[in-house]
Specification:
Layout (H helix, E strand, L loop, with lengths): L1 H70 L18 E2 L11 H4 L4 E10 L4 H10 L5 E4 L6 H9 L3 E4 L6 H4 L3 H19 L5 E2 L15 H9 L3 E2 L4 E2 L10 H13 L3 E7 L5 H14 L5 E3 L9 E2 L7
Parallel strand pairs: 2-3, 2-8, 2-9, 3-4, 5-6, 7-8
Antiparallel strand pairs: 1-10
Helix pairs in contact: 3-9, 6-7, 8-9
This protein binds zinc ion (ZN).
């Protein structure tokens, strides 16, 4: 009977050893499963933590911006004469909803020059864009709705210039007949440009300027419409005088621009991009050669950071 008992004991020992090993393997498996879960969960928990932190930081930044923009809501009444002739000019800074670093803050030591081209696109738009590209200068194009110039609208945007609005039809009698027709015209040109470039313009120039005398109802209605449509309007304080009935030579246009901007800290220059204005295109290299010859001037496109020049200012501004 002894050997049998011994044999049984040996078997029992073996079984116990096997069971013991199984338990160890199961413990190891549980540990590995747990470790794997922790490893998988860790990045997710970290992400959630960072998102929460990011949310709190954004709230703090918004609060700081809010404080800064409230401080920067100032109104300037400044300078006289908006053209080389002399007329009334009032310059105001926009009440800002969010803080935008102004061109004056970015370039405190240089005179700012904003070349603006009205009434385009035209058969000369590409030529103007070529010259601007050659001098690496960005400008502002106040455009109308003109079929057959889709590539020009796109090129203006793609090359970093400001594509701004100057009405759909440019027909004074129609645009300024009633506030409703004015709003209709603004929406038409906004949509026309957006369809071609995918971009919503935020800058506007009144045909004839904000001081035009073609409106026989309260002009405040026009200003209110622009505000409602998300547009800020800009006039000019330097004119190339290329819009007159007498065709000016490139040299004369060059002189008008250079003498005008030399008197301004922020010179918004009125020029035209139109089929009968080739001398403007010819004057452009002369103007750019002069204005880029040293650091006196910086040439910029009009943006929300540009100090507006307005011949007539809304009383609500
Ligand atoms: Zn015009």
């Amino acid at each position: 009977m002894e050997p049998v008992t011994d044999n049984k004991t040996e078997q029992q020992v073996q079984i116990e050893q096997i069971n013991h090993r199984r338990r160890r393997i199961q413990r190891l498996k549980r540990f590995l499963t747990f470790a794997l879960c922790v490893l998988l969960l860790f990045p997710n928990v970290t992400c959630v933590y960072l998102l929460v932190q990011n949310f709190h930081m954004n709230k703090k930044i918004d609060a700081i911006y809010q404080m800064i923009s409230e401080d920067s809501e100032q109104t300037y009444l400044d300078e006289k004469s908006f053209s080389n002739d002399s007329a009334e000019e009032i310059i105001v800074s926009e009440p800002e909803e969010e803080y935008v670093i102004s061109d004056n803050e970015l370039y405190p030591d240089q005179k700012k020059v904003y070349l603006t081209f009205d009434d385009g696109p035209s058969k000369y738009t590409n030529e103007i864009l070529d010259v601007l590209a050659e001098y690496d200068v960005k400008a502002t194009f106040f455009v109308l709705a003109k079929d057959g110039f889709d590539e020009e609208y796109k090129r203006i945007v793609e090359e970093g210039h400001t594509l701004a609005l100057h009405s759909y039809s440019h027909k004074y009698s129609k645009i300024y007949a009633t506030p409703t027709l004015f709003r209709e015209d603004v929406r038409l040109i906004q949509d026309y440009v957006k369809d071609r470039t995918g971009q919503k313009s935020v800058i506007y120039r009144f045909p004839g300027g904000s001081s035009n005398t073609l409106v026989d109802f309260d002009k405040e209605e026009l200003f209110a419409i622009l505000r409602e449509e998300g547009l800020s309007y800009f006039d000019w304080n330097v004119t190339s005088q290329d819009a007159g009935s007498v065709k000016l030579s490139p040299q004369k246009i060059y002189q008008n621009v250079i003498s005008g901007v030399s008197e301004k800290e922020n010179g918004i220059v009125l020029m035209h991009d139109a089929a009968d204005k080739h001398t403007t295109v010819e004057a452009l290299p002369l103007i750019l050669e002069e204005l880029t010859s040293d650091d006196t001037y910086v040439l910029l496109p009009i943006t929300e950071g540009t100090q507006p020049v307005r011949h007539v200012v809304s009383s609500y501004e």
